[in-house]
Amino acid sequence: MSKTPLLDTLDNPQALRRMDQDALPQVAAELREFLLDSVGKTGGHFASNLGAVELTVALHYVYNTPEDHLVWDVGHQSYPHKILTGRKNRMHTMRQYGGLAGFPKRSESEYDAFGVGHSSTSIGAALGMAVADKTAGNGRRSVAVIGDGAMTAGQAFEALNCAGDMDVDLLVILNDNEMSISPNVGALPKYLASNVVRDMHGLLSTIKAQSSKVLDKLPGAMEIAQKVEHKIKSLASEADHAKQSLSLFENFGFDYTGPVDGHNVIELVNVLKELRTKKGPQLLHVITKKGNGYKLAENDPVKYHAVANLPKDGAAAETGTPKPAARPTYTQVFGRWICDQAAADPRLAAITPAMREGSGLVEFEQQFPERYFDVGIAEQHAVTFAGGMACEGMKPVVAIYSTFLQRAYDQLVHDVALQNLPVLFAVDRAGIVGADGPTHAGLYDLSFLRCIPNMVIAAPSDENECRLLLSTCYQLDAPAAVRYPRGSGCGAQISDGLETVAVGKGIVRREGRKTAIFAFGSMVAPALAAAENLNATVADMRFVKPLDEALILKLAQNHDYLVTAEENAEQGGAGSSVLEVLAKHGIRKPVLLIGVPDTVTEHGDPKKLLADLGLSAEALEKRIRGWAV
């Protein structure tokens, strides 16, 4: 017998909307059961999806999707949405090559109104849809679902500021679970919490008035009640000022409703039905619990933000963060290095835009809390903040994913590079990232970094090179970036010192003849493997900027064919910089550029993706052998 009999009958939201409202709690319970089973097998984002089950059911029940638009911020919480919109039978393919994407994707379903993956875009996108629908006069509604973590980003407030001054029908749902990936930071979460406490303050007055007669008759009960009242009042004291004025969101021009229990599906449906009839910008504040329905995830939402799988007994899940293994990951290499470097230099400060665990800064925060700064989901601010520190003699290290560094490009150029400030960017997840797909792939940083004046760019080929190049770039009195891939390297022996290497100098890893391969970063290992059968020379270039021009010219003189290899977009990347050197010196030799072609990459197993892109050792050998004839 099926554990999800009601859910099994729902092929689309239209079928859900034909059900009696009283059946929705059972639908939500079955949806959570199915989610536990499917994610437990495939892995993926976990706690955030469990927390959004009732909200997803209520939204599809009230709104006429896909004509009405649901825009999910980031997309970590979109699995229940996928299950209810005809993709239930494909959930076993989640995040696998050729299967369902881990985030909403417009080409995957008409119910995915907007492709997402980065935070804080939902309000702006939904506002654009609302304006388009108003212009067309079609009466469709737009809803943006954004978490309290994503609401800390400036882009969300830019959209709120714009929407509040426009005559459009837009609903913003603030899904408040007091978390992003790590615990929230900053003033806004405290403000939201004070709103909830303020609501408790009003509730207390009602309870007190209605129950005083009963409490008077119970021995000792009034004394206990007075202590509880005093505690709640002390919690609410910080909200007293807010009681005298409109809420933050009302000041932005939104009608505020809430807080509402985000796990009471009937209440949510009733509130959403009323809000759907209202005109103008509306904001619904919903309180949910990340990991709701799975105790381990409720108790440790950081650990269970993403999982690889769940044991059948529910004992201890494997998290999406790589487990400690015989070979440390590049992230772990960085985490150990920054602690060692901080111990040697009191000027060092670490900055992360809400990625403490993912960037390897947990141990640093524990050892150097006064020099650790989590600025929230605010990449732009992180970079300018680092620039300000550098102006006053500190040595900031910004730990950031390649895909998220894109969000702070203006600040990187204007606030750091043009002023030649010594900020080190530890650029994690460079290259193919696997299951998270194109929104998280770090394929463009070499192209967008190397055109910026004053920047030094390093690409380590193994774990020890990562430590060496981090130490080297940290010592510079200039902006620098060290980009390294996700996962483990080739198992190199790692130094425990803080040695440095010469800036802008590469090293020949293998001497061959006829063909020379200029390999950058993660492509050195496959290039060396391919070179064994090709008898080719392999140069580990180490630096993309400044390039080792002397080494390029030397190898160009005594080889017939030149190859560049990088895990980055071919356009404007490291290979292009080699071509520029050759052109500058008037050298005419056949050159094969190998990198990621001009295409949007897919999600799936990284090894398969690299092979399909022609970046595995076997593919490199085949491409070079077929070209250098």
Q: How many discrete structural domains?
A: 3
Order of adjacent strands in the largest pleated sheet? 10-9-11-12-14-13-18
What is the fold-level CATH name, i.e. the topology of the largest domain? Rossmann fold
CA radius of gyration: 27 Å
Helix content: 40-55%
- Outline type: globular
Instruction: Please identify which CATH superfamily of the largest domain we are dealing with.
Output: Thiamin diphosphate (ThDP)-binding fold, Pyr/PP domains
Total helix count? Answer: 25
How much beta, percentage-wise? 15-25%
How many angstroms does the end-to-end distance come to? 64 Å
Q: Can you identify the CATH class of the largest domain?
A: Alpha Beta
> Biggest β-sheet: count, sense, barrel?
7 strands, mixed
TL;DR of this structure?
It contains 25 helices and 20 strands. The protein has 629 residues and is α/β, with parallel strands linked by helices.
Keywords:
single chain, 629 residues, alpha/beta, Rossmann fold, 3 domains, seven-stranded mixed beta sheet, five-stranded parallel beta sheet, 15% strand
Helix-strand layout with pairing:
Elements: H1 13-17, H2 24-42, E1 44-45, H3 47-51, H4 53-62, E2 69-72, H5 79-87, H6 122-136, E3 142-147, H7 154-163, E4 170-176, H8 187-216, H9 221-236, H10 240-243, H11 248-251, E5 255-261, H12 265-276, E6 281-287, H13 295-299, E7 306-309, E8 318-319, H14 330-344, E9 348-352, H15 362-367, E10 372-374, H16 379-391, E11 395-401, H17 402-405, H18 409-417, E12 424-428, H19 445-449, E13 456-458, H20 463-474, E14 480-483, E15 507-510, E16 515-519, H21 524-534, E17 537-540, E18 543-545, H22 549-557, E19 561-569, H23 574-584, E20 591-596, H24 606-612, H25 617-627
Parallel strand pairs: 2-3, 3-4, 4-6, 5-6, 9-10, 9-11, 11-12, 12-14, 13-14, 16-17, 16-19, 19-20
Antiparallel strand pairs: 1-7, 7-8, 13-18, 15-17
